[in-house]
Fold this sequence. Notes:
Largest sheet: 8 strands, mixed
Structural class: alpha/beta
Number of helices: 17
Bound molecules: nicotinamide-adenine-dinucleotide
Strand order of the largest sheet: 9-8-7-10-11-14-13-12
Distance between the termini: 68 Å
Radius of gyration: 22 Å
Amino acid sequence: MTPGNYDIKDPSLAEVGRQRIEWAAREMPVLRLIRERFSREKPLKGIRIAGCLHITTETANLALTLKDGGAEVILCASNPLSTQDDVAAALVEFGIPTNAIKGEDDETYYKHINTALDARPNLTIDDGADLVTTIHTKCSDLLEGIFGGAEETTTGIIRLRSMHRAGQLKYPIIAINDAQTKHLFDNRYGTGQSSLDGITRATNVLWAGKKVVVCGYGWCGRGVSMRARGLGSQVIVVEVEPVPALEAVMEGFRVMSLLKAARVGDIFITVTGDKNVIDKAHFEVMKDGAMLANSGHFDAEINIPALREMSTGQRTLRTYVEEFKMKDGRCIYLLGEGRLINLAAAEGHPASVMDMSFANQALCVEYMIQNKGKLEIKVHPVPEDIDREVASLKLKAMGVAIDALTAEQQKYLASWEEGT
Ligand SMILES: NC(=O)c1ccc[n+]([C@@H]2O[C@H](COP(=O)([O-])OP(=O)(O)OC[C@H]3O[C@@H](n4cnc5c(N)ncnc54)[C@H](O)[C@@H]3O)[C@@H](O)[C@H]2O)c1
């Protein structure tokens, strides 16, 4: 470790962080298998990896897997509020320079990204594409040494595809989020459970009987809606696309415009990846006591500057609960500063589901090394065999057996001759 290439809150938190990382590892059997193989085979030897990720116990297990595979790993936070300071301290002790402090301001956030880039990585791992965009816009001298990258989340992939369309993307990236073993599970069950966990920890609210408005019925929105219903809430879904809106209707949720939902909702949760979804017109008609939380990647989904402007005063009532007093006396509560509530106010996704997402990350890093110089410069899907391997290993770890096609069935499914 070079002095000065890490920046954390408090090194004395390392022991607590180490124990929590160990606890998460117990729920990550697929990543553990990969780590064991990487330790033996060292497939990442000599590779420098910069990771811009939520600094959580699960990410620590990914970083240790990459390190055991022979890589030099340096980390920075992918969100100013998602860092677990004890984990950051433990990572530094494990020899993984980490640049992340919970609650860091925007300037420190980008300073940390720049420190990670000073390591001159060969591969990047992003969650939201801030590393890739910084490299392309401000550190293009690094491009010659980089042969690939991996992107964890929906919003990052949208940004990278847009870069590629504009002819700006200069190295190949694998869209980890698009693996079935990622978004079907992490975004749905992970974000579903942990977003409600974050709101509960921040507010201690009772979900039963509440009118919960979920903005966006994508993979995260499906999970949030499903779990809120499970806790007894009346769920209202807001969408802009007809197909997911129809799916929500057939799942039994009420679907309506946000302007209408704004008048009746008790808790609003945005998971769209979009901007200013909840805006001035909605704040104007919300009930006294309405709570607003975001679990999408950026803190842009709720128009916080407009809310600030419309209010006559603000105060923090509890950690991650900010009260906005409106001119007519109503109070609206913003949770977790509008940043992803599951990581700001809770611990992010449970390890068991990150096991699959990060198994995809580790195997895709290996794949990019094996295919160095051969991948076209674009956003690639996760290879299907990696996706299937992750699912098979997870099932095996869970003690679940499935059947195999017989030779007759394989032939039947591949043919067209047999009919009625
Ligand atoms: N909190 C977390 O830990 C976590 C985990 C995974 C993904 N994410 C982030 O959550 C966001 C959603 O991810 P996803 O995988 O569900 O995406 P998705 O593309 O599957 O779903 C997004 C949905 O939002 C809808 N939408 C867009 N604009 C809207 C608007 N103005 N009003 C209502 N609906 C609108 C879209 O039609 C789409 O159905 C992304 O920013 C993603 O990066 C967060």
